[in-house]
Prior knowledge:
By secondary structure, the chain is α+β, with helices and mostly antiparallel strands. It has two domains: 5-85, no CATH class; 94-199, no CATH class. The protein is 36% helix and 25% strand. It is built from seven helices and nine strands. It has a five-stranded antiparallel β-sheet. It has a four-stranded antiparallel β-sheet with strand order 1-2-3-4. Strand 2 (16-20) and strand 3 (25-31) form a beta hairpin. Helix 1 crosses helix 4. The protein is elongated, with a radius of gyration of 19 Å.
Amino acid sequence: MVEEEAMPAAKLVPGLKRLPKPDGFSTWYWAASQISRKNDGFYPRTVRLWHGQGQPSAAELDAIALKAERTTLELEEWLTDPKSRARGRKRVLGTVYFLRTGAMVKIGFSRNPIGRIRSLRTAIPGQADLLLTLKGARSTERALHRRFRAQREHGEWFRYEPPLLDFIEREQGQNHPFRIAPQDVQNRPHLSIEENHAATT
């Protein structure tokens, strides 16, 4: 029987596995059981991400890692409040933002992200750079805090180093349904999340 292989350290993503076959083919897949055994009720349990001969290309590896990472985040978010998810309670959506100052990154949540980031920039000494925004809920923020707990310094502040740095760089290259550009925070007047979404789509 062929042993399953973990993803190389440079591309390590929770939940991602590679299953090589004797004929030179291999399958890369994501499995919820690699993240948590408490996954009853979560779907999908497994996701096949790539199958082929030899190794995926660099671009394919990036796509595999990104898909696995997003599915992991969905599971981690679900794990933070499975009872409310089961009852079908509607989540309050807003924006999860990543704000960097020096060697630290704040992972926060707000329904008025532009106003929140502007106020933080006023309160933080030195330069503060908006690295990334993702549409999500409080549970998304909590899932990210748990994901990068090894990099946590205090509260919502994390060290800007792998794997957090890798996650941000992968997400920066994607087209998200809702994203705030750094110049929006600097130059635009105060906008609600709905108004800003309409202005940037």
